[in-house]
Write a structure and sequence with these properties.
The radius of gyration is 50 Å and the shape is elongated. A hairpin with a 2-residue loop joins strand 7 and strand 8. Among the domains are: 154 residues, no CATH class; 109 residues, 2-Layer Sandwich (Phosphorylase Kinase, domain 1), CATH 3.30.200.20; 234 residues, Orthogonal Bundle (Transferase(Phosphotransferase), domain 1), CATH 1.10.510.10. The protein is an alpha+beta fold. The protein contains 19 helices and 39 strands. The C terminus is likely disordered. The chain binds 2-acetamido-2-deoxy-beta-D-glucopyranose (NAG) (9 copies). Keywords: ATP-binding, Disulfide bond, EGF-like domain, Glycoprotein, Kinase, Membrane, Nucleotide-binding, Phosphoprotein, Repeat, Serine/threonine-protein kinase, Signal, Transferase, Transmembrane, Transmembrane helix. Serine/threonine-protein kinase that may function as a signaling receptor of extracellular matrix component. Binding to pectin may have significance in the control of cell expansion, morphogenesis and development.
Length: 767
């Protein structure tokens, strides 16, 4: 006895050790409780899970009784005491079985063995309709399948069904003519069976008893069966040898009770979902049970549903990232990052060391900042008082530095002498209020020269407020001159300068607000361009020419604008041109025709002669104006690097086209060309050509140009007024115009800006 006892203890110890210290992967992740403790788990190779059972006192109901035939090798389970052989049972509700084939064979025209077979299933079992099909094989065959089907669990013998199919062929070889191995009507036919069938009776018959010439001498058979189509492929050889196959696979569905869940749950003694963490679901036969998500096992047994250890299983939907620590919890699991890592464990887990250090630094900074803040608050009050005083001194200082006093004096003098409205000097506070503290949302234009804001002045008047970039202190005098000059240009086609502010470090200029955007926008935007009729274009040209003529001839001292381009011509609602941006303009000293300066302007508009000689004359404006005129005619941009090489420079392209006589090919599509205006277009084109002469002396003066354009425009104008169309299109435009702005796009730094094509070349001794 003693040695036996020692052996058992040793064995138990061994098992315990191998369970506790063995390889983790060897351990079951959840118990595989299949059936009750007093039942055999399997018969041969087939597992028999509860509620199926091989003994009557263990099974849930008689329907689930399985008989194991130990006389076979390996032993085979059968359903109850029927001939239905079970190949597998799934807790998902399926039962795979083998079923006999119905056979009907003929020898010399006489039926030799006619089998009429039927499958009669106990209640709770039905034939699965999606997996199975009814198939008949033969060359003189009609097969009928009939029986009963359930209506939600209730096994009444009504309603019943009857269906079937028929297959004829002249010889076995005919079956090959069809798709070789598909059951498609020749030698084989198939049909589906109704849902919930439980009594399936198969009847086989033939029309001619296989008594026709070709077949007479063969042993000719018909076969019929319900089969799991996933496990059966038709082959023409079956026509002669299916007899030997005997049994074919069939899928059955089973339910654990015939009621709906709702009803089944009411009686806890009969309710089959015994396990915690299991749930009930309805089926067409009745109800079944399943384990909840995160659990696995047999829901029909107490404690059958066991927690899945997702951390070990790591199924495809496992969500912990690399480095994360997985912690299995009851029914679920969590992913967390190890202490030195940051992240949530599901999306990322990154080593955190450097971050943590930085965080610590931030913490220290935070505490220090907090202490510092306290100190600041203590000193704050006295400091702000000091600051306020300082600010006001600063403002005064800037005002003086920016030449405020000089300007104020000169303005007063001007006012006294000419009695005209000159510009106003705004305070910094006023303009800050007007632009809502130079709010980003108020920006309407931005360029190398500065930023333009939309502002509302005290009297509710809308203004454009230009904040320049830092300017050269040496040029203060000049700045004042320009402000003064601009303030004196009182021309209806020049943007009005309302005032300026000198209290800030950089001077602020206040202009009248022009609502309709720049000419450039109108020319190069497809939609807007379509509204620009030839008349409007010529009007804009004439008005611009008028301004330049005025600047060159009427103003004293004469002014050269120096940056004429479509971006600097603004349009108001009625398409009246307003020339803007006098940032680059030059006052021409008396008795001097030309001045030597830093070459400045915009690529594409820049006078080539000026570029070469550095001598700025009125004719440079004429050249730039010529480019604008061509732009008006063609709708093309002055310089466009996206075009083929010969079309990049608009002036060159225009001149070469006109010389080739292709003027009308390059006109803007929106200019309607007809006999009425062909002459006029040619005249304007010739005028533009003259403006673009390489030699300044050969270009016409602005005065001539203005006169010529005005004459043309006036003629056309009277014609246009009788035309309703122009007025119509104008009113149409008012609604669709967004606010636009383009006061300042000059580039004052020394480089070529590829976006604005602005160029500024430094010249020794210039300016
Ligand atoms: C269990 O299986 C053994 C053979 O493996 C058999 O002898 C025994 O009768 C079976 N018990 C039941 C309840 O079927
Ligand atoms: C199975 O056995 C039971 C008795 O144990 C009997 O009443 C029943 O008719 C049998 N069923 C078949 C299909 O033989
Ligand atoms: C078979 O067909 C022949 C004629 O083709 C007929 O004489 C014979 O009676 C038929 N035999 C049977 C069993 O129908
Ligand atoms: C038939 O079997 C398939 C799996 O083979 C299953 O998805 C389907 O639910 C079953 N049909 C019924 C009515 O249970
Ligand atoms: C199934 O149907 C056949 C014929 O229709 C009948 O003979 C047989 O008794 C039925 N089986 C059951 C269990 O009702
Ligand atoms: C039926 O054919 C398919 C492919 O043609 C094959 O994958 C499958 O194993 C075959 N089934 C049987 C039972 O032969
Ligand atoms: C539950 O079912 C059992 C067995 O059918 C029956 O004896 C019992 O009376 C039922 N209990 C209730 C509350 O219906
Ligand atoms: C199953 O759940 C019930 C209540 O829902 C509880 O009382 C019982 O202890 C649970 N059993 C197990 C094994 O967790
Ligand atoms: C794992 O989760 C359980 C239950 O939520 C908790 O008690 C335990 O502390 C966790 N372990 C780790 C290492 O996070």
């Amino acid at each position: 006895m003693a040695p036996n006892y020692v052996m058992i203890v040793a064995l138990i110890t061994f098992i315990c050790f191998s369970l506790c210290f063995g390889d983790d992967a060897m351990l079951p992740t959840h118990n595989n409780l299949i059936t009750k403790s007093n039942c055999n788990e399997s018969c041969g190779n087939v597992n028999i899970p509860f509620p199926f059972c091989m003994s009557r006192d263990c099974t849930l109901r008689d329907q689930f009784l399985v008989t194991c035939d130990y006389s076979l090798n390996p032993p085979q389970p059968f359903l109850e005491n029927s001939s239905i052989e079970i190949t597998s049972i799934s807790l998902a509700g399926q039962l795979n079985v083998l079923q006999f084939i119905s056979t009907d064979c003929y020898g010399a025209g006489i039926s030799t063995n006619k089998i009429k077979s039927f499958i009669a299933l106990p209640s709770l079992l039905t034939v699965n309709d999606t997996s199975n099909r009814f198939i008949a094989v033969g060359c003189d065959t009609y097969a009928i399948v009939q029986g009963y089907y359930t209506k939600f669990g209730a096994k009444i013998e009504y309603p019943s069904y009857i269906t079937g199919c028929m297959s004829m062929c002249n010889s076995i070889d005919d079956a090959v003519n069809g798709d070789k191995n598909s059951c498609s009507g020749v030698g084989c036919c198939q049909t589906s069976i109704p849902k919930g069938a439980w009594n399936v009776t198969i009847t086989l018959s033939s029309y001619y008893n296989y008594n026709y010439t070709d077949m007479k001498n063969d042993l000719s058979c018909s076969y019929a069966f319900v089969v799991d189509q996933a496990n059966f492929n038709f082959s023409k050889t079956y026509l002669s040898n299916l007899q030997n196959a005997e049994k074919l696979p069939l899928v059955l569905d089973w339910a654990v009770g015939e009621d709906k869940c709702e009803i089944a749950m009411r009686n806890s003694t009969t309710y089959a979902c015994k396990s915690n963490n299991s749930y009930c679901h309805d089926d067409s036969n009745g109800y079944r049970c399943s384990c909840m998500q995160g659990y696995d096992g047999n829901p029909y047994l107490i404690d059958g549903c066991q927690d899945i250890n997702e951390c070990v299983d790591q199924k495809p939907d496992y969500r912990c990232v690399k480095n994360a620590i997985c912690n299995n919890t009851d029914g679920s699991y969590t992913c967390t990052c190890p202490p030195d890592f940051s992240g949530d464990g599901y999306t990322e887990c990154n080593r955190e060391n450097p971050h943590r250090k930085i965080q610590n630094i931030y913490l220290i900074i935070g505490i220090t900042a907090g202490v510092a803040l306290m100190v600041i608050i203590v000193f704050g009050w006295s400091y702000t008082a000091f600051q306020r005083r300082k600010m006001s001194t600063m403002k005064k200082k800037f005002f003086q530095e920016n030449g405020g006093l000089v300007l104020q004096q000169r303005l007063t003098r001007e006012e006294e002498s000419s009695h005209t409205n000159t510009i106003k000097i705004f305070t910094a506070d006023e303009l800050e209020k007007a632009t809502n503290g130079f709010d980003k949302d108020r920006v309407v234009g931005q360029g190398g020269f500065g930023t333009v804001y939309k502002g509302y002045l005290k009297d509710n008047c809308v203004a454009a407020i230009k904040k320049s970039k830092v300017i050269d202190r040496n040029q203060i005098e000049q700045f004042i001159n320009e402000v003064l000059v601009h303030s004196q240009i009182n021309h209806r086609n020049v943007v009005k300068l309302l005032g300026c502010c000198l209290e800030t470090e950089v001077p602020l200029l206040v202009y009248e607000f022009i609502s309709n955007g720049t000419l450039s926008e109108h020319l190069h935007d497809k939609l807007k361009a379509s509204a620009l009729s030839l008349d409007i274009r010529l009007k804009v040209a004439a008005e611009t020419a008028g301004v330049l003529s005025y600047l060159h001839s009427a103003a004293y001292p004469p002014i050269i604008h120096r940056d004429i381009k479509s971006v600097n011509i603004l349009l108001d609602k009625s398409y009246t041109a307003k020339v803007s941006d006098f940032g680059a303009s030059k006052l021409v000293p008396a008795n001097q025709k030309e001045i030597s300066t830093l070459v400045q302007g915009t690529l594409g508009y820049l006078d080539p002669e000026y570029l070469q000689t550095n001598q700025l004359t009125e004719k440079s404006d004429v050249y730039s104006f010529g480019v604008v005129l061509v732009e008006l005619l063609t709708g093309r941009e002055a310089l466009c690097f996206q075009r083929p090489e010969e079309e990049r420079s608009l002036t060159q392209y225009f001149i070469s086209s006109v010389e080739k006589g292709h003027l009308f090919n390059i006109l803007d599509d929106n200019i309607i060309c007809d006999e009425g205006n062909a002459g006029q277009l040619k005249t304007v084109a010739v005028l533009a050509q003259r403006c673009l002469n390489v030699k300044g002396d050969d270009r016409p003066t602005m005065k001539e140009i203005a006169a010529e354009l005005e004459a043309g425009s006036r003629l056309k104008h009277s014609w246009a007024q009788t035309d309703q169309h122009s007025e119509e299109s104008e009113s149409l435009l008012h609604d669709t115009q967004p606010l636009g702005f383009g006061y300042e796009y000059s580039e004052h730094s020394v480089h070529i800006d590829s976006i604005t094509n602005h160029v500024t070349l430094p010249i020794p001794g210039g300016r």
